[in-house]
Amino acid sequence: MNKKQLRLHYKALRATLTGTAVEDGSIAMANRLLHLPIWDKVYFHVFLPMASHNEPDTEPILHLLAGRDKDIVVSRSDFTTGEMTHFLLTDNTRFRINGYGIPEPVDGIEVQPEKIDVVFVPLLAFDASGNRVGYGKGFYDRFLSGCRPETIKIGLSFFEAAGPWDDVFESDVKLDYCVTPERIYHFNPGTENC
């Protein structure tokens, strides 16, 4: 399989999920995050989901982070440049829905990528080596390549790892973990899946 085929396959699979399955799976993923060694970190980047595409709902994660007084960062995408701008989420943050159905901050306190400690990464599929397939626009690969090497990258998926695919590129940024409703995948040497 290649990335294009995986995108089609996993978009179709996600389209079959009920609202209850999305809600229950999203809560299960948030609960699994409590077992990761990330809670001493400060700046957490969270994607805001495209509900129409049955992406994992990150609201339970936002509640976890707020309850632990973490600094939460959200992004706005520029589809002409392919770049993302990151803003601190505050009580005063105003949002608008972009043309792809993604809630985005209108403005706010900008946060540079090198300051971010943990990134929750949207994806369509991932493999047992930590490679991910996104929507193909490259936003997250560009963003993650601007983060510090030690920034922790965590994918969120309703489905388990896919088989390897043919078109993995050097510019593809690998995940450190992927969390599903059923388990946590660890991609760094010396850690075990659980």
TrEMBL record:
This is 5-formyltetrahydrofolate cyclo-ligase. Its EC number is 6.3.3.2. Substrate binds at M50, E55. GO terms for molecular function: 5-formyltetrahydrofolate cyclo-ligase activity; ATP binding; metal ion binding. SUPFAM superfamilies: NagB/RpiA/CoA transferase-like. One of its GO terms (biological process) is tetrahydrofolate interconversion. It is an enzyme of class 6 (ligase). Its cofactor is Mg(2+). The keyword Metal-binding applies. ATP binds at K3, K4, Q5, L6, R7, R132, V133, G134, Y135, G136, K137, G138, F139, Y140. Keywords: ATP-binding, Ligase, Magnesium, Metal-binding, Nucleotide-binding. Belongs to the 5-formyltetrahydrofolate cyclo-ligase family.
